[in-house]
């Protein structure tokens, strides 16, 4: 994960970063990223980890104090509607469950964050919506439907980020033998040609129409 971060941060040649980790949980990744950015890359970093579990947040704040990570703090709160206390440069999420990933991506787009690194988890939403007369072969078998829905969820998210002005990739960031939840959305704010945005939108519309889909991220972005 940090190797992938390093690639993009090095390209941007920044010296300061404001970072939000949505759904940080026990924050193993949060601490590793903060250490890497500050101690290895030598950057000035303000970082917040957000989660819904008060006991976890308390433990993480105590750990940050123990290691004298003065600009790393943890807050109790919901991703949906979260107000950042600074201009956000980078948003990361590791296994934010189902539509929590969508709210994290939406916030990042709203803030015009320079970089987004998101590993989705438990993509249930579209599985419950999927139906198709022309491609019923993909909805007939439960396991095929589940896996197709998960892949379509992240393909749509990637296209929505492209449409929103991000150079976006879907990567396998850890070997499948370790975990099936190994897809990483990497998005970097860039100048995206209008033709690429139009194509991304047309592809979204086509798949949503074919399968009767209303993804959370698309709804949020349309309501902006």
Q: Would you give an account of this structure?
A:
The chain is an alpha/beta fold and 224 residues long. It is 46% helix and 22% strand. The chain is built from 9 helices and 7 strands. The protein has a 7-stranded mixed sheet with strand order 3-2-1-4-5-7-6, sandwiched between helices. Strand 2, helix 3 (54-66) and strand 3 form a beta-alpha-beta unit. Helix 4 (100-110) runs parallel beside helix 9. The longest helix is centred in the last third of the chain and has 22 residues, at 142-163. The radius of gyration is 18 Å and the shape is globular. It starts with a helix and ends with a helix. The model has no long low-confidence stretch (mean pLDDT 93).
Major β-sheet profile: 7 strands, mixed
Distance between the termini: 31 Å
Give the overall silhouette: globular
Structural class designation: alpha/beta
- Strand order of the main beta sheet, please? 3-2-1-4-5-7-6
Helical content, roughly? 40-55%
Number of separate strands = 7
How confident overall, as mean pLDDT? 93
Number of helices: 9
**What percent strand?**
15-25%
> What low-confidence regions span 5 or more consecutive residues with pLDDT below 50?
none
Note the run of SSEs as H and E: HEHEHEEHEHHHEEHH
Give the radius of gyration: 18 Å
